[in-house]
Amino acid sequence: MIALITNNTIPPGGWQYTQLDAQGKKLKSFSSMNSLSMFCGQVLNCRVGNRLERATLAEVQQDVTAFTCERLGNDPRFCRDTQKKTPGLLSGWSASVAGAVDTLKKQVTGALVVGDYVLHGSKPVSLAQSQSRADVCTGRVSGVPCPRHVQSWNYNLATQTVIRLEMEKRAKAGRKLEGEANLKTCNVCGCWLPLKADVPFITIWKYTSDAMFDQFPKDTPCWITQERKESKLI
Q1: 100-109 long-range contacts, Cβ below 8 Å, gap at least 24?
Q2: What is the pTM of this model?
Q3: Is the Cβ–Cβ distance between 119 and 195 less than 8 Å?
Q4: Does the pLDDT value for residue 63 go beyond 70?
Q5: C-beta of residue 216 within 8 angstroms of C-beta of residue 208
Q6: Please, are residues 101 and 23 in contact by the beta-carbon 8 Å criterion?
Q7: Which residue has the higher pLDDT, 12 or 209?
Q8: Alpha-carbon span 167 to 194, nearest angstrom
Q9: CA 60 to chain centre
């Protein structure tokens, strides 16, 4: 479930909420720059006065924060996924196949990131942010490509199909990055970078274990490492 990182900071645009009546029609819109508790008290009074469901302070606060995250596009600067991330996959395999298992883990991670992105409407970050991310990987501007950026990866057929379809959709939408032909794969997570550069960080965070985050470069520029720090999802 997506929730605010903190309830103590007023989000951009202040607190906002639209209360629906029992028939699902708009009853009243609320907005305030006061504290969350004061704002939720107003919504609660409306629900109680109109004999609506979810008329406790805890339920109102849950609905208001969910509404806020949706309004903010689940921006990782303000929102986080409260579900505990899945622990390491396939951890029971023997040391003799550790290399193969590690490759499979990365392919699964890459597929999950792209799959979640596609299933949730493929709403990309801004083109400028995608370009900035891609430039870090390829070194187009700095002349120093990321050491984790590789030109080939053994994707399975299902992942190849999703990548191809999504790339075709991007092309039809006219979304193309400078130097995109040189942008390939991250060998930490196994993600196809032309797509990953478009994915909101909250989706990346959801499917990336702490152990995998630790493998991204720290002594050289890495947009994933930097955005993780900025999001405070550490």
Answers
A1: 103/154, 103/190, 106/187, 106/188, 106/189, 106/190, 106/212, 107/153, 107/154, 107/155, 107/156, 107/159, 107/190, 108/190, 109/189, 109/190, 109/191, 109/207, 109/208, 109/209, 109/212
A2: 0.54
A3: no
A4: yes
A5: no
A6: no
A7: 12
A8: 8
A9: 25
**198's tokens:** 């478009």
Q: Cβ contacts of residue 204 below 8 Å, gap of 6+?
A: 113, 196, 224
Give the H or E element holding residue 135.
helix 127-138
Q: Residue 233 — very low, low, confident or very high, per pLDDT cuts 50/70/90? A: low
pLDDT band at residue 103 under the 50/70/90 scheme: low
Q: What is the pLDDT of residue 72?
A: 84
From residue 11, give the alpha-carbon distance in Å to each of 1, 34, 74, 215: 18, 11, 12, 32
Judging by beta carbons within 10 Å of its beta carbon (0-12, 13-18, 19+), is residue 143 exposed, middle or buried? Answer: exposed
Q: Which long-range contacts (CB under 8 A, 24 or more apart) does 142-149 make?
A: 142/221, 144/220, 146/186, 146/217, 146/220, 146/221, 146/222, 147/217, 147/220, 148/186, 148/187, 148/188, 148/215, 148/216, 148/217, 148/222, 149/183, 149/184, 149/185, 149/186, 149/187, 149/193
Phi first, then psi: give them for residue 56, nearest 5 degrees.
-125, 160
The answer to whether residues 203 and 116 touch, using CB atoms and an 8 Å cutoff, is yes
Q: What is the DSSP letter of 95?
A: G
Give the tokens for residue 144.
């120093």
Average pLDDT (100-107) is 50
Please say whether the dihedral angle defined by the alpha carbons of residues 63, 67, 69 and 73, taken in this order, is positive or negative. Answer: positive
Q: What number of residues does the chain have?
A: 234
